[in-house]
Specification:
Layout lengths: L6 E6 L2 E6 L10 H16 L5 E6 L3 E3 L16 H18 L4 E5 L2 E3 L1 H8 L2 E5 L3 E3 L13 H9 L1 H10 L3 E2 H7 L4 E3 L4 H13 L3 H13 L5 H16 L2 H11 L10
Parallel strand pairs: 2-3, 3-5, 4-6, 5-7, 6-8, 7-10
Antiparallel strand pairs: 1-2, 8-9
Family: Belongs to the enoyl-CoA hydratase/isomerase family.
Keywords: Isomerase
Protein name: 2-(1,2-epoxy-1,2-dihydrophenyl)acetyl-CoA isomerase
Length: about 260
């Protein structure tokens, strides 16, 4: 794990909590924070004690996206493609390929890459005061961090184009109604609900939950026949798991199951 204080990391009840921690910069990403957050998700991949991840931000915002001071064109033309390939794309791939639930609690503004990272998580909750902004249009850039892939799939081409081209803020209630996030929560209840959800998922049959995540993500590009075959294969794998055996045994014995994520 990185020892950077730009990401606060804590493991409890099977949940690895990762908190973006540059509140004075609205948790905008610099290279140090990128590497620290990547280290957190790499730990989640490797550490069997991590059963779920909870991602949130410190202070009054979730993330304003890239720290533009680190990519100032007045100091020379930056290679933003290199930035994406080196930092954002590896992070998105780690989030999407992690076969454990990732809960995101958006506690304030989520702009640019900050918004699209939130949309890439498995279950995203947002404070009612939160706003999602595809801020790229304000500075002549293209949505990244999976934005051009996720947005049209979640809300359709018309809304995706309008969000990306106008950079108008989208409130949390509308984001929930449109299917961009799971739920809008009263500000003072957000973290309690997000933590409770993450703990509940971590205590669940995370082997099967991870396979479910893989199947749903594959559906975006699979044909029906390919998806049916994938369901067959993943169900076979799930059926051989200790979690399945425990779940059925507990049901038949009328007791609470004790899943191990195996």
């Amino acid at each position: 794990m990185s020892d950077s204080d730009t990401i606060l990391s804590a493991l409890a009840d099977g949940v690895l909590s990762l908190t973006l921690n540059r509140p004075d910069k609205l948790n905008s990403f610099n290279e140090e924070m990128h590497l620290a957050l990547r280290a957190g998700f790499e730990r989640a991949h490797k550490d069997a004690d991590v059963r779920a991840v909870l991602l949130t931000g410190a202070g009054r915002g979730f993330s304003a996206g890239q720290d533009l001071g680190d990519r100032d064109p007045r100091k020379g033309t930056p290679d933003l493609g290199h930035t994406i390939e080196t930092f954002y794309n590896p992070l998105l791939r780690l989030i999407r390929s992690l076969e454990k639930p990732v809960v995101c609690a958006v506690n304030g503004v989520a702009a640019g890459a900050g918004a699209n990272i939130a949309f890439a998580c498995d279950i995203t909750l947002a404070a009612r005061s939160a706003r999602f902004i595809q801020a790229f249009a304000k500075i002549g850039l293209v949505p990244d961090s999976g934005g051009t892939w996720n947005l049209p799939r979640l809300v359709g081409e018309a809304r995706a184009k309008a969000l990306a081209l106008t950079a108008e803020p989208l409130d949390a209630e509308t984001a929930a109604n449109w299917g961009l996030i799971w739920r809008a929560i009263d500000d003072d209840k957000l973290m309690d609900e997000a933590k409770a959800l993450a703990i509940r998922l971590a205590a669940g049959p995370t082997k099967g939950l991870g396979l479910t995540k893989r199947a749903i993500q594959a559906a975006a590009t699979n044909s029906l026949d390919e998806q049916l075959d994938l369901e067959r294969d993943l169900q076979r794998e799930a059926g051989h798991s200790a979690d399945y055996a425990e779940g059925v045994t507990a049901f038949l014995e009328k007791r609470k199951p004790e899943f191990k994520g195996q």
